[in-house]
Amino acid sequence: MPRSAPTGREVTVDLTRTNLLNQKTSDATQLTYYLEKLADDATVVAVKSSVQNFLDRISYTSPQTPQNLDLRREITAEILSWNDGLSDAFVKGLVDTSCTIAETAYTHTSHEHQFIVALYTAYLTYADDIGEHNVEAVGRFVQRFTQGQAQSMVAFDRLTTLLGTLHDYYPRISADAIITNSLDSLTGMYIELVTKGARIHPAADRYPFYLRLKTGIACAYAHLNFTKNWGEATGNFYLQMLPELELVIVGINLSFYKETLAGETDNYMHLRATTEKKSPITVLQELVDENLESIRKIQELATCQPGLAEICHSFLMGYVEFHFSARRYRLEEVVDVARYVPA
Predict the structure, then answer these.
(1) pTM
(2) Contacts for 266 with CB less than 8 Å, ≥ 6 apart
(3) Is 3.40.50.2300 the CATH classification of the domain at 67-330?
(4) For 269-309, what is each residue's pLDDT tens digit?
(5) What residue ranges do the domains of the chain occupy?
(6) Which of 67, 107, 114, 284 has the fewest CB atoms within 10 Å, measured from its CB?
(7) For residue 117, what are the CA distances in angstroms to 105, 168, 183?
């Protein structure tokens, strides 16, 4: 039986119900927004607290390393020579990241070695940044490298050339390790790209660290500390310390603040939190303790070889300073850097 047309009163009642429903939906949406905003704010506060705790416990003092303007001009010219149509803002950011880590973490090395570090960082940071737009270029790098083929981008060809010069500047073991870790890092970047959004099984609890160790390029950045002349003159005891140094490089996750603000959840902290059934903040706090233990071991081991303690102290303080000085990490929002400037 067909339904009769609604009366005016029924229409009014229906409209009232609709308005109430819309109001409830709107209220629920606003409540969800405010709850999420509150959670985000609490996360940011917790991140700030963890970073502050770490800096205080390592007795961090800012080295106040000045910018090397000659180095920055050289790296700018190199990036522009790729002719990749990069924006001025992108070039400026890439130069800043590449030169800042060379200037701060490797201040104990020569200008020539800092130039190598800056070049190396520019190539691999570029690979990481453009990977999602050019997955194939990243994925085929290792195959092209081993088969002696030209890469699909100028920057990747230049990286290949740079890797071929490393034995002139670093001990054989270090040069070999930097090269193999570079290939491994590009494999790691490719894994990240093709598994983006994949659910991590709780039993795969070592997978986050496996991936972080590849993409963090820790082995290479550890070996870049030890130049050929220094290593050949003092021996190879420093190799025993490298596992702890690598753990610190991947563990000092001061990029987590930037990632938190960007709403990123496919990073090491979140992957580890998922497999360990913990909050990302809990994982961050645990990482602080793990890093402190590694730093303690580094300091103990560094006393066993002449000059090693000075190199390690310079690198560790400089590596922290890098995260504060490089604009991409936004850590000036976390703590008052002036607090760590010596009087």
Answers:
(1) 0.83
(2) 192, 196, 197
(3) no
(4) 888 888 989 988 898 889 889 999 999 999 999 999 989 99
(5) 67-330
(6) 67
(7) 10, 14, 16
